[in-house]
UniProtKB/TrEMBL annotation:
<dbReference type="GO" id="GO:0009401">
    <property type="term" value="P:phosphoenolpyruvate-dependent sugar phosphotransferase system"/>
</dbReference>
<protein>
    <submittedName>
        <fullName>PTS sugar transporter subunit IIB</fullName>
    </submittedName>
</protein>
<keyword id="KW-0597">Phosphoprotein</keyword>
<feature type="domain" description="PTS EIIB type-3">
    <location>
        <begin position="1"/>
        <end position="101"/>
    </location>
</feature>
<dbReference type="InterPro" id="IPR013012">
    <property type="entry name" value="PTS_EIIB_3"/>
</dbReference>
<keyword id="KW-0762">Sugar transport</keyword>
<dbReference type="InterPro" id="IPR036095">
    <property type="entry name" value="PTS_EIIB-like_sf"/>
</dbReference>
<dbReference type="GO" id="GO:0016301">
    <property type="term" value="F:kinase activity"/>
</dbReference>
<dbReference type="Pfam" id="PF02302">
    <property type="entry name" value="PTS_IIB"/>
</dbReference>
<feature type="modified residue" description="Phosphocysteine; by EIIA">
    <location>
        <position position="8"/>
    </location>
</feature>
<keyword id="KW-0813">Transport</keyword>
<keyword id="KW-0598">Phosphotransferase system</keyword>
<dbReference type="InterPro" id="IPR003501">
    <property type="entry name" value="PTS_EIIB_2/3"/>
</dbReference>
<keyword id="KW-0418">Kinase</keyword>
<dbReference type="GO" id="GO:0008982">
    <property type="term" value="F:protein-N(PI)-phosphohistidine-sugar phosphotransferase activity"/>
</dbReference>
<keyword id="KW-0808">Transferase</keyword>
<dbReference type="InterPro" id="IPR051819">
    <property type="entry name" value="PTS_sugar-specific_EIIB"/>
</dbReference>
Amino acid sequence: MKKILLLCAAGMSTSMVVKKMRESAAQQELDIHIEAHGVETIQDYLAEYDLFLLGPQIRFKKDELQKLADEVNKKVEVIDMMDYGMMKGDKILKDALVLLG
């Protein structure tokens, strides 16, 4: 099972994106665990998750967070602003799957 963690500042819109991503994963019968947490919690989840996606509003933290993730060979990527704003969970999931290889 692959695990994706969305990181955000406040969490309201990100939790809606997670819901859409989960729905898309269920429709495709994918074995993927997706959650969202505040960006300050990344240290707690580095070993547990395979991919970290940032809400566009905190894209400025990407380099800092990628340095942490590099220590455990994980990727940090920013969710496309348009996809995020339009709550395109299926597209965000598709992009995440590409990143996961």
